[in-house]
Amino acid sequence: MTARVLLPWSDISVPAELDTACWDGSGSPPPDLDGVEFYVLPYDQGSEPPKLIARLPSLRVVQTLSAGYDNLLPLVPEGVLLANGRGLHDLSVAEHTLALILAAQRDLPRWFAQQRAGSWAREHTRSLADCRVLLVGYGSIGKAIERYLVAGEAEVVPVASTARAGVHGIAELAGLLPSADIVVLVLPDAPRTRGLIGPAELAALPDAALVVNVGRGTAVDTDALTAEVAGGRLRAAIDVVDPEPLPPEHPLWTLEGAIITPHVAGGSASFHPRAKRLVERQLAHYAKGETLENLVG
Amino acid sequence: MTARVLLPWSDISVPAELDTACWDGSGSPPPDLDGVEFYVLPYDQGSEPPKLIARLPSLRVVQTLSAGYDNLLPLVPEGVLLANGRGLHDLSVAEHTLALILAAQRDLPRWFAQQRAGSWAREHTRSLADCRVLLVGYGSIGKAIERYLVAGEAEVVPVASTARAGVHGIAELAGLLPSADIVVLVLPDAPRTRGLIGPAELAALPDAALVVNVGRGTAVDTDALTAEVAGGRLRAAIDVVDPEPLPPEHPLWTLEGAIITPHVAGGSASFHPRAKRLVERQLAHYAKGETLENLVG
């Protein structure tokens, strides 16, 4: 029997020896899934696609297009390989991070409000150039953000979990906060990152510093951040928050110094071509019996 | 008599042999300006600072902090040197250009509207990565924009007035428009640039292309752009427009596909340290009798 692959797209190159079926996560999955050996989960389509794993008796490989995979570990049977989407979202997240930073530094909320009012009134703004940017989380996303910041002549201060040449360790964070104009958090949710930026860390930042969070909301104490922004001392530009969704009545929504986007940093068009290229490579590896990329779990 | 310099700031290094006076362009100029040989015009302070030129009998040098200087030529007496602020605004303009592009590609107006409504609703967006960006105007500002675009993995297609290795000539523009995802205009106001992007050029762009203007508004036919954006076929993100200010009742203000900022690309914080460093160098040159930088006119 020909090996089948279940894919979220119909427009990618698949080795001739593989048979394909397509499901983008909407509606019902196609029938006749007994032969599916390789399942590429549709991206960001909720809880139904992972549930299908249990209904694929011939399954050998699960490919997720997310970087995170903790939610899948309990669902992937013993002996089935799991590969993740490490790297696919780096550029999308970096781009959105720059959008948040520049929106805050160059006063986009003010200009958009003036636009709605049909008002043309000029004022000088902050800049990104020359700012000292603490980049907390220095994996592949952090490095993609750094390339943008370097192009913009900001001063980048990388911080990772452990110190190495040119990179500060997280233990040095307290000493770095007082001289930061901008702090960018690119951290996963983990016991070591939860509440990392609490009242004391926020208090250590200089007046008017900008807190940017594009990792996971749990890295920042939301109440403490809300208090500092409400008091006018700090500014915030965040794509993630704890809790998500931020409740409609939360005071952070309406603060003048806050910019909030709804966890959309990773979900842009740049993801799709990169995801398709990864899956094409993985299917070629699979057809030839080679080791897959991005294996986890 | 000690040579005097009239400066917009009091916090820069001045050679010991020069006497200083300070005027930031607000209120009245200081008294006793007869000895002023070197006048640094306050930046972006309207028409009063240039008028002072006529009241400085010992004047030898006028330093403007703008790149443009056409308005000063009739005011600078024969034999007085004029130096401009070429390069000081490059990074500020590049930064704002990226802010406009990313705001459009990553849907910031939508997220800001949701924020005002306290609404958390996710959707995937466009990206800058992989976009083909026509960069029309390839001087020092264009190159600063290019560095950002390269960091973001966009494909940059530079266009200058004349073709050279790796750079298209403006005569090739018509052939380049149909494959552009984004067109960035960084052009001065001049007979050759006025109306460069008219109805035919806009019609040549593919559906959903983004027109970005950070040079001078006259490069684009505003009525034609308004019609294409109103029809939903093109998008616009502009910092300059013809006329400026855009009248309050102009239909472009309220179009969903338009982002408008009020000619603020050059006026950000990154300008000031660069302007101060230039003036410090110029005063050192002047004190030593060396040739000044950025001489024009």
Automatic annotation (TrEMBL), chains A, B:
The molecular function terms of the Gene Ontology recorded here are: NAD binding; oxidoreductase activity, acting on the CH-OH group of donors, NAD or NADP as acceptor
Which family would the database say this protein is a member of?
A: Belongs to the D-isomer specific 2-hydroxyacid dehydrogenase family.
Which keywords label this protein? NAD, Oxidoreductase
Looking at the record, the residues that make up the D-isomer specific 2-hydroxyacid dehydrogenase NAD-binding domain are: 98-265
In Swiss-Prot or TrEMBL terms, this protein is called Dihydrofolate reductase
Which top-rank group of organisms is this from? Bacteria
Domain D-isomer specific 2-hydroxyacid dehydrogenase catalytic, by residue range, is: 51-296
Native organism is: Amycolatopsis alkalitolerans
Which PANTHER family does this one have? Answer: 2-HACID_DH_C DOMAIN-CONTAINING PROTEIN (PTHR43333), D-ISOMER SPECIFIC 2-HYDROXYACID DEHYDROGENASE NAD-BINDING DOMAIN-CONTAINING PROTEIN (PTHR43333:SF1)
